[in-house]
Every structure is written in C-alpha cells, then in structure tokens.
Design brief:
By secondary structure, the chain is mainly α. 26% of the residues are buried. The longest helix has 21 residues.
C-alpha cells in the first residue's frame, strides 16, 4: 500500500537527478568561499559526492569551488587578512 507521501517522494525522485542536491551545496559553498576561502574545501568535497552520485555537471561545481576559493584567498590577501579567519 502506497501512501500519498510515498507517491510524492517517488515523483520528486524522478524530477531531480541523483546528485543535484550535492551540486547545489557545492555551489553554495563556492559562493561562501569568496568570504571564507576554507569553505572551498567543503565545496570540493561535496562536488566529489555529486560525481559519485552520477551528476553530469559535477565538473562545473568543481571549477566554481576552486575559482571562488582562489578569489577568496586573493581578496583576503589584498585586505591583509589571514586566509583562515
């Protein structure tokens, strides 16, 4: 017997590909890396989780996490702040 919640979860699973949530988290951590460059490491870790789940755009999230981490390090260096807050 399927309840309404089970049917709703099944529909949601078909609408979003596996690894999409990990991709979204990786992009969020990449954006946060502009202020706190250490969070780029979390973005890279979550990106590899999206890769293991089979999400096709994982390489875009990896590039974004690395680039934003680099920009965050440069910005904090320009402001003469430490990389790790």
């Amino acid at each position: 017997m399927n309840s309404a919640d089970d049917v709703g979860r099944a529909r949601l699973g078909r609408l979003t590909p596996p690894g999409k949530a990990s991709f979204d988290w990786a992009i969020a951590f990449a954006a946060l890396a502009l202020i706190f460059p250490v969070s780029a490491l979390l973005g890279v870790a979550v990106t590899f989780h999206a890769r293991r789940r089979g999400y096709a755009r994982w390489s875009a999230a990896l590039a974004m996490a690395l680039w934003c981490g680099f920009l965050g390090v440069m910005l904090r260096g320009l402001l003469k702040m430490g990389v790790v807050p």
